[in-house]
Backbone:
């Protein structure tokens, strides 16, 4: 659990601040050392604004949990409220929202193994099950991109889809 503190606290806990540009579909990372050198050490992480170097749009600060994001993800939190404490949801929600935006834009399908963590399994996955089940269901989709959220220790069922699509 990341505490929503200042830039300096974030760096001292060895965390990074991931940023995401919805327009470019690009991840970036805030340069915490430079921000702190420039006197922003005491700035609350959630107040910082970052601009995409490619398109100039505001990037999503992945630690930012705004009232708008809370509303947008409220129905998703209901699916995991028995396993994710409310105080931790602001850590997950920005990632969940960014993944779901990107998924829609790219016409992607997300498959998740039963052993996936709850925020992936319940909040971003389209198809869930054991390895064989997700492989079988994936064959029936017309999505352009298939994302497989597996687990390290699960056996791997080769996904062979005809026509071939990026997995
Ligand atoms: Zn951009």
Residues:
């Amino acid at each position: 659990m990341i505490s929503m503190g200042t830039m300096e606290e974030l760096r001292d806990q060895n965390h990074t601040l991931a940023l995401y540009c919805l327009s470019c579909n690009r991840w970036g990372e805030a340069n915490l050392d430079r921000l702190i050198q420039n006197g922003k050490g005491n700035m609350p992480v959630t107040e910082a604004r970052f601009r995409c170097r490619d398109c100039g749009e505001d990037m999503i600060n992945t630690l930012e949990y705004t009232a708008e994001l809370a509303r947008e993800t409220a129905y998703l939190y209901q699916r995991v409220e028995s396993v994710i404490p409310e105080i931790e949801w602001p850590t997950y929600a920005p990632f969940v929202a960014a993944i779901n935006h990107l998924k829609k834009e790219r016409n992607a399908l997300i498959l998740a193994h039963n052993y996936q963590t709850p925020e992936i399994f319940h909040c971003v996955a389209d198809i869930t099950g054991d390895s064989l089940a997700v492989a079988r269901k994936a064959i029936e989709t017309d999505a352009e991109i298939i994302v497989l959220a597996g687990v390290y220790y699960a056996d791997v069922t080769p996904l062979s889809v005809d026509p071939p699509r990026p997995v």
